[in-house]
Amino acid sequence: MEQLHWVRHRCRQLLVADSGRGWYSAPENPAAKGSLEPHGSPHRLSGKRRKVLAHHGPYQQEYEGICKGYRGNAIRTTKYSLLSFIPMNLFQQFHRAANLYFLFLVLLNWVPVVEAFQKEITMIPLVVVLSVIAFKDGLEDYRRYQYDKKVNNNIVRVYSGLQKDYIEQRWQDVRVGDFIRLSCNEIIPADMLLLYSSDPHGVCYIETANLDGETNLKQRQVVADLPLQGVEFTPESFHSRIECENPNNNLSKFRGYMEHSTKGRVGLHNNNLLLRSCTVRNTETVVGIVVYAGHETKAMMNNSGPRYKRSQMERRLNIDILWCVLLLIIMCLTAAIGHGLWLQQLKDPIFLVDTETSPALAGFYVFWTMIIVLQVLIPISLYVSIEIVKLGQIYFIQNDLALYNDQLDSRIQCRALNITEDLGQIQYLFSDKTGTLTENKMVFRRCSVYGIEYPHEENGDSWLYRTQSGCSARSLSCRSVNCNQSSVSLHTLTADSEEEQDGPSSHVQPRSCAFCSRMEVVPDPELVRKLDCLASPAVSVSDSSSRTPSSLELTYITDFFLALAICNSVVVSSPSQPRHVVPEARIPLKSLEDIKLMFQRMNFSPFSALSAFSPPQTKDSPRSFTRRLFARGKAGSFTPPAIPASSTKEGLDTENSADDELLYEAESPDEAALVHAARAYRCTLRGRSPENLLVDLPGIGCLAVRLLHILPFDSNRKRMSVVVRHPLTGQVVVYTKGADSVIMDLLEAPQGDRCSHIREQTQKHLDSYAREGLRTLCIAKKVLEEEEYELWLKRQLYAEASIEDREELLMESAHRLETNLTLLGATGIVDRLQEEVPETIRALQRAGIKVWVLTGDKQETAINIACACKLLRPNDQLLTVNCGSKVSVQRCGENWSEPPSAGRSAESSSGAAAGFILVIDGRTLDWALQDELRSDFLELSRQCKAVICCRSTPLQKSEVVRLVRDQLKVMTLAVGDGANDVSMIQVADVGIGISGQEGMQAVMSSDFAISRFKHLRKLLLVHGHWCYSRLANMILYFFYKNVMYVNLLFWYQFFCGFSGSVMTNSWVLILFNLLFTSVPPLIYGVLDQDVPADALMELPELYQAGHTSKIYIPRTFWLTILDGFYQSLICFFVPYFTYAGSDIGDLSFGSPINTSALLIILLHQVIESHTLTWLHGIVLLGSGVSYFAFVLLLSLWCVTCSPPTNPLGVETLQMSQPLFYMVCALTTVVALLPSTSFSGWEAIYIWWKYLNGTNSLLVEKAQQKGLFDQLETGSARFVNLILNHCKHVNQK
């Protein structure tokens, strides 16, 4: 029996030993700390743990006491119920300070001594606002209720102890401890431990698209040491106990153990857990036991709902609200003091005055009365209006066809509903490279095997992006900086680059699964010729200079492509068969004749070529050939039997026909590219099972490779390994692929000139690939002796079974295995640049946005990509910083001063100023981010046009974003497409995820999600500019109209003894800001366009103008307040002086004031609006008509509806007099004239100053055309003429 079988058999014996000890229970003498011997003390779960027992089993009494306390599987994402909706919603709404403030005013108005209006009228604003928000919340909650009801009523088969069979139950009735039976394509209802699979190897395939968006299939394994799979599972026979960690939201981690009735324990890990919301695929039947249900499942614990971030404008708004409160207090204090002084000086009043109250107390009462009268100064409806406007803005963003990807059928997603205006204020953009700037659709481009490069020129012609578009290859060949000598060099790229040209437009094809499409790879002719030598009649074992490869080179080539085919987690399928598995076989096979006979029994047809081989008992058998071929360093020669050409041709034709049906489903595009490359060289992966791989080797045929272990890729190790038993030699071999920066450090010491030569040449090829912008990987192997493998296997099984510190133990075990590797070769994979990336980056830079690239790729690759996407231009200067120690970085920090000024003034042929590009590697960045160096690093990066961080980890990405955001106090945006970008996306002020080839983790963590990088251009330059401009102007308009109207009441106090009386009807007073003037600002905030979209796209500088013009800053806020004060003075005193000396009453005096105020406020918005549509006209006309209709009806029918005043007949009388209309017209014109002229000239001045300061060439040409001669009219609309002409000049 195989040694592996013996080891596993021995493991099982130890697990079920009567002593109760073994690897999963503590021994009497624990091993020393750090020991990994299998008999050492295992790690147990610490802290609180969860015990799970079968619902229908021998532990019924214990189950009732334990599992009944766990939550059920019903979910509820609603906030309210029918009974709790009103109290809970009111409780949440009164968390807002503004709502509490108006509630205080309502209660204050019920105090008789300070009562200003009728009690019911004062409640109207608060009731309306609370009702609108409650309606919105209730509608959203009802939709959640409908979704919950649908999910909870899904049907699943649950085992019933009474009926001894699986019965249908609703999801909400599932409990912890229930046995669940699922079929293919069913959704998993709860987190359950996998106990049975219809797959004979105990494997279950799941799709996690509902959880993380990834569509590639993932394998889950039945708990180890359970009865043989393939036989129907019987829940009655399950007598084990489960102990695991308490519910948590970590999707990639699960710890626990299962204790059998024999007291043996089996470790549980994430591969045994089926998560709620995932879908069973390619597996007929699975059975599991529920461990977490309902809201305790990992999926529900990760469901945090919509993201909430507080925008910069919202923080500014809160400050201005406090200023309004201070202004209100000052006005009320003025009225209180004025009323006290007026009472003191009042002699022999002819009207009724309360003489019993002292002037001081009366002034105190008036203070609170004025708080009620002037309450409109605090815009209670502003917060509601902002929410409505943002919803409207999001609607138009999501329905923009320019942001729709018809090939993927995806549009932009707005996941954060309250930071749309931040899109218009971005100053720093941090971008990932792979999948963000590039397609993340990899194609095999180059490879190096045995130190010999194979360029694959034909394969790269149609896929290689144009690296010459920004820089020539010669301009990127500058030396790296050696910071160990404390030097920082500046490399100026040569300007004699090739003609700039755009790469071919790329198209993303829709995919139904991850990376499963057929990738065409054109083999390199020289490499094909060498592989054909495996079937040739003569192979030289020693090296020679002839065209015939040596046996050692053939060994390298064969192992290289075998590693590409099997060192992965690719699932093989075809249109007719969902998954290709490997039949059981004897391993290792003793001869190629055995291979032929086995596949003939299995009805595999493509191996007729094997019939040419003779039986294996001769000394020159293929078995002997392969033994000698793969035994490195042995001399001699061998002549294998010839293979008939017709037989070979027939076999290859059949093989190619079969290959056309194979589909590969990979977890990453890199894996798919490598498997397709191996397939192009007839080293084809045909099937996979947990223990075997089916692989075609050229000239040999189909072999079953025994898969002993997989060490998956992780971001810390940056490599992946598989342990297999070689199908030809029977040896235990480790194949490893990973980043060259890691693999090169794990290689064995060179033994002889040949190994040193291979290593040196491969390193040269890797550097060349990186300069071409290719993604590089190293391929290596290691042959293990049986005793060495058995020792490692024991340590590995111990680490896998450990509960605590499992990840650390697995890391140590992998490190022991992946050392002293033999380098086989390297690969270079092309990742094509997305369409319009150079144009997008150029536009963003013109908009004043600094673009940083944070990538884990090599420095040369990152520089080349930066050159291709125009981030790095021919006349830019490279500042490359690579340091080997912290001391070197500190010495470099002394030189991190201002770059030479000569480089700053240089300009390219296109007129763009040259700049410095900082390139820093991950190790140096790690030291630069430390406290003592971060200020120097930040100062240097501020002076650079762009920064490229290479070899950076996810943590470093987030630290860089946080450093720039917090220290520079700037608005940051981070964009990425993978799980390694999540941290920086969450740290940035605005996080954007790209729904690319690496799943949906970045999208699910983002504020906005797009499908292509080019969409950033319109999202920021157009929608971002519009959202910021609209919302800023709308907020200022709200402050303006509230201040303007409130001051009318304040000026009246000077003529009524500061008594708190008003000259208008209380209904009109309350509804004026709440109803008559509330809708126009909403239309203004959603539809206004200060600059057309085409102008914003063609002139990105206008985005920067949004910052220089400073729409919403303290200066504009106070100018708006002053404008409101001025217009209120005009609106009050023009009617006052007109009616001075007449006998009209208070309400008659207030009628023209209210009407003028309405006209001034509505026309002021017309003046401020840059876009007027029919919808604007309808809303403005509707506001005016509603006001006049209301006051006329009130004048005709109201007798006692507004005590103590009586508005009956007031409005009808006033509107019948010509003087009323003359007063309203004069007041409106005089009030609006200064602001109209000022706003027009201010807009012209701002744009003139901006254009003259940043684009003098365009302005000079505009002056020559005489365009600015038309500006004397002072109309702001001439700004658009300026911009359109500049656009025309720019195009010329």
Commentary on this structure:
By secondary structure, the chain is of the alpha+beta class. The chain has 42 helices and 36 strands. Strands 14-36-35-34-15-30-33-32-31-18 form a ten-stranded mixed β-sheet, with helices on both faces. Helix 10 packs parallel to helix 33 and helix 22 (837-846) runs parallel beside helix 31. The protein is elongated. The N and C termini lie far apart (81 Å). Mg(2+) binds at residues 432, 434, 977, 981. It is a multi-pass membrane protein.
- What's the β-strand tally? 36
Low-confidence stretches: 1-47, 461-514, 539-546, 584-658, 900-911, 1253-1279
Query: Main beta sheet, described?
Result: 10 strands, mixed
Q: Characterize the overall form.
A: elongated
Distance between the termini: 81 Å
**How much is the radius of gyration in Å?**
39 Å
Strand content range: 5-15%
Catalytic activity: a beta-D-glucosyl-(1<->1')-N-acylsphing-4-enine(out) + ATP + H2O = a beta-D-glucosyl-(1<->1')-N-acylsphing-4-enine(in) + ADP + phosphate + H(+); ATP + H2O + phospholipidSide 1 = ADP + phosphate + phospholipidSide 2
Keywords: ATP-binding, Endoplasmic reticulum, Magnesium, Membrane, Metal-binding, Nucleotide-binding, Translocase, Transmembrane, Transmembrane helix
EC number: 7.6.2.1
Protein name: Phospholipid-transporting ATPase
